[in-house]
Design goal:
By secondary structure, the chain is an all-alpha fold. It is about 65% helix and about 0% strand. Keywords: Signal.
């Protein structure tokens, strides 16, 4: 009898458990296979987070009607990736949807598509809001790409209103690179503008025969800023720098010569630095300063660059101070605020105003997680902020784990969906109150997941909240003999943000982002087996090979962190070439700060600063004690 009961025990447990259950990993496997019916069935057996995730993925894949999109947006307004669902909803609005419901849909968000803008304008007109409807139609016409059917509907409903805006629409689509929308406008504009548009498109496409098309542009449109920009960009892409710079300088001197000044910003920064490196500081300053911008990241970058050139290459500290002040007013992150304080201090020192300089340095020193914040602290004679050596846990937020979107993020991580979990955590951080960021970072560290914690901490830093435990996490990474652990941690933090499974577009792999050839060489150097699959599966193996590469670079270039990090990022040959071309930054007669700022590659310039700033923080985190502010000495190490 007892034996029969034991034999039936599994069946009894199954009956008590109720319906069959599935886990989120199974659900997501079905989603990735586009098996939506199976995914929904499995999600129903798993729980509400799984059901919402399937619905989210299905709607983002276009698997849903307007009502499904609208309802999901209403129920999950705090989820990531909603713009795609909203844009799809705009395209799928039923023709008979009442005007009041259309206005309700757009009550808190602008249309993302031409089709959405058309429905909003129609609804506004139907509700007697004629002025709003006309304004919406003109705004959409001048800014949004749209297909031929939507364009035809706009013309049918607002033909007379939009007639005077056809050229503006064509010009906007050309600047945005919306080729199809631009071509659809050609029948609506004068012949001269058709010729201009064909020339601009051909230049952007790097098409053959552009000279013929440029020659067909009528004289009154030859000075069009958009045409000048495409001619400039064509030359820049071809490597014809002198010709490109000549166009940029000429257009910068003309009233309205730039058209959309922001489109020139990145190239302007590149060429200003080229001119500076090649010993033409006056031309470099003109390119950086005459940007025509009033806001944005390019504005900030170019104001700083103009100040740097004025101070260090033209020896005009008063001019430099004005640019550094503009830069300071335009930035918010610790990296940029540290930079602002340091360079304002340098300009004030050069002007013989030491007290004001020290105050500026002190402002920069308030941001000691940054390269220039640490240099500013040194100049001001200030110690390291004790908070940076923090070893205790971050404070939690009691109700955070109960929030549905956070529960979904945690469920994804538990199911092994780290990439999607990261998307959710990052989005949550971007929309979280500054006071709650520590709780979210603490939650990520408790998983444990240093990569996601760092992603959260970077968002928090952008809000002015520094969380050292998450911003500079301490995963268990070994350092080889002779290589400081703070260097290994700083490199891994910069390379992969502690993601052991990531592969870069260039093919670098794992925690230390090793290229396969380098990893193979280091395995040979260590006398160990080269296991390519382990580069993204075994963090300890990856770190061992990465540490060996750092040891090799230190043997080659000494203990100088500038040269070591350049070698790791850009290759040892670049270290040798730049020393030969610009001097050795370790030498007494070479200003290492200027040397770093004149590194030709933006990525490498930034890389050197981010790694070297991290080393001081990691020394403090590893020891649990504040450290002397010695970055300037470290940068000159031999």
């Amino acid at each position: 009898m007892f034996a029969r009961i034991v034999a039936c025990f599994p069946m009894m447990l199954a009956l008590l458990a109720g319906p069959a259950t599935a886990d989120l990993a199974q659900v997501m496997a079905a989603v990735r296979a586009d098996k939506w019916a199976e995914a929904r069935t499995l999600a129903g057996q798993t729980g509400p987070e799984a059901e919402a995730l399937v619905e989210w993925r299905a709607l983002r894949a276009g698997e849903g009607d307007f009502a499904a999109c609208r309802d999901f947006l209403a129920r999950h307004a705090d989820w990531p990736g909603l713009d795609r669902i909203r844009a799809d909803a705009e395209q799928k609005m039923p023709p008979d949807l009442p005007a009041a419901r259309v206005l309700e849909f757009f009550a808190n968000a602008r249309p993302l598509t031409g089709a959405g803008a058309l429905r909003l304008a129609q609804a506004q007109g139907a509700q007697g809001l004629e002025g709003d409807a006309q304004a919406e139609a003109v705004l959409a016409w001048r800014t949004l790409p749209m297909g031929p059917d939507t364009q035809a509907d706009f013309l049918r409903l607002f033909s007379d209103l939009l007639a005077s805006h056809h050229i503006a629409r064509l010009d906007a689509m050309l600047w945005q690179g919306k080729r199809a929308s631009a071509l659809n406008m050609l029948p609506l504009v004068p012949e001269g503008w058709r010729s201009l548009a064909r020339a601009r498109l051909a230049l952007r496409d790097m098409a053959p025969g552009v000279d013929v098309l440029i020659g067909a542009v009528p004289p009154e449109l030859e000075r069009d800023p958009g045409l000048a920009f495409e001619r400039f960009q064509w030359r820049a892409r071809k490597g014809r720098n002198d010709e490109a710079i000549a166009i940029l300088a000429m257009q910068s001197d003309r009233i309205d010569g730039l058209g959309r000044a922001q489109s020139w910003g990145n190239w302007r920064r590149i060429f200003a630095r080229v001119e500076a490196r090649e010993g033409r500081p006056e031309r470099a300053y003109a390119l950086a300063a005459r940007h025509g911008l009033v806001e944005g990241s390019d504005y900030a970058d170019l104001e700083w660059l103009a100040g740097f050139i004025a101070l260090r290459l033209l020896e005009e500290p008063q001019t430099a101070l004005g640019h550094f002040g503009n830069f300071a007013a335009a930035v918010e992150t610790p990296i940029s605020l540290g930079r602002a304080g340091y360079w304002q201090g340098r300009a004030l020192e050069a002007l013989g105003r030491p007290e004001e300089a020290r105050a500026a340095y002190a402002q920069g020193a308030a941001h000691q997680t940054s390269f220039y914040g640490q240099l500013a602290a040194e100049r001001a004679g200030l110690p390291m902020d004790p908070a940076l050596a923090a070893t205790g846990p971050l404070p939690g937020v009691p109700d955070l784990k109960a929030r549905p979107v956070v529960k979904t993020a945690l469920a994804l991580h538990a199911a092994g969906e780290r990439n999607l979990a990261e998307v959710f955590f990052t989005h949550i951080a971007e929309n979280l109150r500054a006071t709650d960021q520590a709780g979210l970072a603490a939650l990520a560290l408790s998983l444990p997941d240093e990569h996601i914690a760092l992603r959260v901490a970077k968002v928090a830093a952008g809000q002015g909240v520094v969380l050292p435990q998450a911003y500079f996490p301490l995963p268990d990474i070994a350092a080889p003999e002779g290589v400081p652990k703070e260097l290994v941690l700083s490199i891994a933090r910069r390379e992969s943000e502690f993601d052991p499974a990531v592969t870069s577009p260039a093919g670098a792999r794992g925690l230390m982002q090793l290229m396969p050839a380098t990893a193979r060489d280091m395995a040979l150097r260590l006398g160990t087996v080269y296991r390519p699959a382990a580069l993204t599966r075994d963090a300890a193996y990856n770190a061992r090979l990465g540490g060996a590469y750092l040891a090799y670079l230190r043997e080659t270039f000494g203990t100088n962190p500038v040269l070591t990090t350049i070698g790791y990022n850009a290759g040892p040959s670049r270290v040798t070439a730049w020393i030969e071309g610009r001097g050795d930054p370790r030498e007494a007669g070479v200003d290492v700060i200027d040397w770093i700022e004149m590194i030709p590659f933006r990525e490498t310039r930034n890389y050197v600063m981010r790694v070297t700033e991290s080393m001081a923080i990691y020394r403090a985190r590893l020891s649990g004690k504040t450290q002397p502010m010695r970055l300037s000495r470290d940068l000159k190490a031999r």
